[in-house]
Amino acid sequence: MPSGIDTMTVFVQRGDFEGKEQQVLSAIHRYAAPDTIEIEGDLALVAVVGRGMKSTRGTAGRIFSALAHAQINVKMIDQGSSELNIIIGVSNDDFERAIRSIYDIFVETQL
Questions:
Q1: pTM of the entire predicted model
Q2: Structural domains of the chain ordered from first start
Q3: Are 46 and 90 in contact (CB under 8 A)?
Q4: For residue 95, which of 41, 43, 39, 40 has the smallest C-alpha distance?
Q5: What are phi and psi of 61, to 5 degrees?
Q6: Strands (E), 24-109
Q7: What angle do CA 25, 30, 31 make, to 5 degrees?
Q8: Each residue of 83-111: pLDDT tens digit?
């Protein structure tokens, strides 16, 4: 998925990638000639989805404030053009706390 102006992110299951890293990296270099390639392991993806997200101001702010308050580092962000979801990459160790903090800010907290 595009994850920046000049950045592309590819997600693969660890088991599908292990033992094939050099093959995959060589193919990417051969076909795309990127400036750099970085491999980030131990990443969990959290998708926040809702019909009201498109027309509600501050949704992303609430999400990232909740994560910051829980001391969770956001490693990746993607929001589709439909504005119906935001996908956030966090460390696997932070996954459960990320889910809880986002749930709490939208369900438990009455703003």
A1: 0.79
A2: 7-39 (no CATH), 42-111 (3.30.2130.10)
A3: yes
A4: 43
A5: -60, -40
A6: 43-49, 76-79, 85-91
A7: 100
A8: 788 999 999 999 999 999 999 998 888 66
